[in-house]
Design a protein that fits this description.
Blueprint: E1 2-8, E2 11-17, E3 23-27, E4 38-44, E5 49-50, E6 60-63, E7 78-81, E8 86-87, E9 93-95, E10 101-103, E11 106-112, H1 121-126, E12 128-136, E13 138-140, H2 149-152, E14 158-165, E15 176-181, E16 184-190, H3 198-206, E17 216-218, E18 233-238, E19 242-250
Parallel strand pairs: 6-17, 8-14, 9-19
Antiparallel strand pairs: 1-2, 1-5, 1-14, 2-3, 3-4, 6-7, 10-13, 11-12, 11-17, 12-14, 15-16, 15-18, 18-19
């Protein structure tokens, strides 16, 4: 099942769609916090504007330096992207005026469904609602320190979409990821290249900070994150989870 958040006729709604369906069943309330109930209307993907499928109540927690040989290196560095940085598919990424370089990073996103602290990897598996795609947009330059709000937390720095895939059997440690800019492939790889399994990474994050329902964990980027410029368009894709595009504009 896919959980979507969308806008139609100036109304923002949640919906559900089967994996192979082009129809969205509108839902009452937010499926993260309310009992899932159909609201009545059924829409096609073509007639709605998809939004970020989740607007985190608390935070997006990003993992840095997460790819490499299994078990290698020390602790995973984590950073926070505020919920004000979140946008959805097709929304413009705005190039910050203080930055000299802007890069996009395709990443697997993990959406939490329960409050969680000090999880084991097995417990982490059962605390997850589903999976999505993230473009962890990152600013750089002489006046931008790495992993700070200026680098990671500016408005439009976190694209989430196109939906949340809810599938407990999904092989999250063997998902193919790719990104492209104006149709040219820039990143390509697999979550199998991460230093931790996905559940290990979620457990490690929960040892640092309490995870809340609706929190999203960006599990880290492949090498080769492309530079972005105004007028370019970046696409992020993960096999089995979908894809989205965003134009880049000057602020």
């Amino acid at each position: 099942m896919r959980v979507v958040r969308f806008e139609i006729n100036n109304q923002i709604m949640f919906g559900a769609a089967e994996a192979d369906s082009d129809q969205i069943v509108a839902l009452k309330g937010d499926p993260l916090f309310d009992q899932v109930q159909p609201a009545g209307p059924i829409y096609s993907f073509e007639e709605v504007h998809l939004l970020s499928p989740v607007l985190p109540r608390s935070k997006v927690l990003g993992a840095a330096d997460s790819y490499g040989p299994k078990g290698s290196g020390g602790a995973i560095p984590f950073f926070i992207k505020p919920n004000t940085s979140v946008i959805g598919p097709d929304d413009p990424i705005l190039f910050p005026g203080y930055a000299e370089v802007l890069r996009g990073e395709v990443e697997l996103g993990v959406v939490m469904k329960t409050m969680a602290k000090n999880l084991t990897p097995e417990e982490a598996k059962h605390a997850i609602m589903g999976y999505t795609i993230i473009n962890d947009v990152t600013a750089a330059g002489p006046n931008v320190a790495p992993l700070t709000v200026a680098a990671k937390g500016f408005d439009t720095a976190c694209v989430i979409g196109p939906w949340i895939t809810v599938d407990p059997e999904l092989d999250v440690d063997n998902l193919e990821l790719s990104s492209s800019v104006d149709g040219e492939t820039t990143q390509q790889g697999s979550t199998s290249g991460m230093r931790r399994t996905v559940f290990e990474l979620v457990a490690e994050a929960s040892s640092i900070t309490t995870l809340l329902p609706g929190d999203v964990i960006a599990t880290g980027s492949l090498a080769g994150a492309p530079e972005l410029a105004a007028g370019k368009q970046m696409e992020c894709a993960i096999a089995g989870l979908g894809s989205f595009r965003n134009p880049v504009l000057s602020r």
